[in-house]
Backbone:
């Protein structure tokens, strides 16, 4: 069979692994070394001539890290991927690559919180950036927001809080016309279900701490794009800011990528059943999940995603905090915690953070309610998950 015809499941299992040079070991070793030695002056000098590809020092390239990067680039349809110590290290490297001092950024409202803070509370002050936040539901909104100094359009589709979508192809085409760079946080879908680089986006970023690692044992991030662009990031933000991934974590990601397709299909199947159960439950007011036919932007999702992962949110009908807590604390299988995308089911309530930082009036102004729940649907049996939600919902008195 022609190698080019291999399906992605096969590539994730074997691509970029040269077992002959690891004594046939079926799993590659962890190259736990900080530097690489050379035979001669000329050898190390030549390595520096091609420093974006050479093994010189593990703040740059490392063989274990490279295997994981090549698999991810293959999956995303990109030419090169760079793995970082966290999703935020990847996000900040990509943003800094794109922006200029005194420049302008267009971003969606409800952007991942720390990314929002990076732009608004940090780069705005440090680099005199101006930022326009828009809902992003229509391409025309982006067009109206463009200014003469716009350097970057920052997308997150679906966003991880309210799951709003942007027309990725439409926005990328608009940005190209105006010579503006585009980046997307594709963590929710993963490149298995959505391929923004194939739709014209310049840079794709992920928190690998979610589905790409999938076992809740890694914090990492990745930037993917063209060789030219990612090599520029390698020479500047990667080497100079130094947020590289540890070889051990890259090795865990190699392990995880082999099962990404089957894990995601299982997350998707469980999540749709859980979302449908919640949608039909009398104590639930509303469910936000792009895979439901009732979802506001269902058609757009169908157009640009090939599947839906396992993070969703819903609103309990009760406005009473005591009742909400009874439900929240009454869950037995869903664990209470932040993050998502791992094997285990989780629940979190946004109000927990907000009511510390805001007056009741400010909280009301956000449009959030105490009963807004976010769940990450894991890989447990779906009957047990629905049973757990059902028994906890019964703890809410009418
Ligand atoms: C978690 C997350 C990040 C940040 O990733 P870390 O690995 O936690 O730094 C970025 N974007 C989204 C959508 C996330 O959920």
Residues:
């Amino acid at each position: 069979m022609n190698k080019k015809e291999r399906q992605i499941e096969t590539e994730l299992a074997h691509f970029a692994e040269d077992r002959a040079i690891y004594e046939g070991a079926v799993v590659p070793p962890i190259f736990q070394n900080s530097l690489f030695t050379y035979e001669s002056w000329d050898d190390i000098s030549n390595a520096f001539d091609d420093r974006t590809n050479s093994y010189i020092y593990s703040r740059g390239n490392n063989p274990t890290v490279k295997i994981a990067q090549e698999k991810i680039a293959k999956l995303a349809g990109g030419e090169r991927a760079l793995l970082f110590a966290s999703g935020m290290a990847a996000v900040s490297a990509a943003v800094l690559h794109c922006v200029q001092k005194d420049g302008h950024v267009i971003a969606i409202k409800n952007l991942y919180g720390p990314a929002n803070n990076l732009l608004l509370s940090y780069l705005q002050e440090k680099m005199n950036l101006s930022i326009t936040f828009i809902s992003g539901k229509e391409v025309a909104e982006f067009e109206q927001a463009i200014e003469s100094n716009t350097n970057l359009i920052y997308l997150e589709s679906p966003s991880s809080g309210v799951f709003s979508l942007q027309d990725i192809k439409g926005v990328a085409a608009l940005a190209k016309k105006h010579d503006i760079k585009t980046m997307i946080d594709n963590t929710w879908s993963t490149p298995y279900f959505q391929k923004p680089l194939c739709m014209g986006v310049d840079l794709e970023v992920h928190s690998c701490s979610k589905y790409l690692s999938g076992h809740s044992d890694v914090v990492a991030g990745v930037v993917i794009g063209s060789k030219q662009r990612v090599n520029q990031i390698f020479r500047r933000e990667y080497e100079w800011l130094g947020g590289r991934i540890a070889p051990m974590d890259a090795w865990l990601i190699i392990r995880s990528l082999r099962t990404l397709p089957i894990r995601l299909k299982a997350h998707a199947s469980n999540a749709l059943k859980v979302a449908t159960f919640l949608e039909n439950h009398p104590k639930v007011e509303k469910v936000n999940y792009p895979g439901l036919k009732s979802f506001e932007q269902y058609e757009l999702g169908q157009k640009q995603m090939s599947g839906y992962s396992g993070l969703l949110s819903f609103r309990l009908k009760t406005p009473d905090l005591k009742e909400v807590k009874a439900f929240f604390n009454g869950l037995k299988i869903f664990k209470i915690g932040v993050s998502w995308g791992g094997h285990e089911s989780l629940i979190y309530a946004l109000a927990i953070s907000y009511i510390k930082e805001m007056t009741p009036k400010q909280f009301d102004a956000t449009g959030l309610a105490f009963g807004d729940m976010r769940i990450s649907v894991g890989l447990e049996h779906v009957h047990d998950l629905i049973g757990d939600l059902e028994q906890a919902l019964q703890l809410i008195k009418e």
Observations:
- Residues 86-88, 91, 112, 160, 185, 187, 207, 209-210, 219, 221 surround pyridoxal-5'-phosphate (CB under 6 Å).
- The first strand starts at residue 80 and ends at 84.
- Residues 260-279 form the longest helix (20 residues).
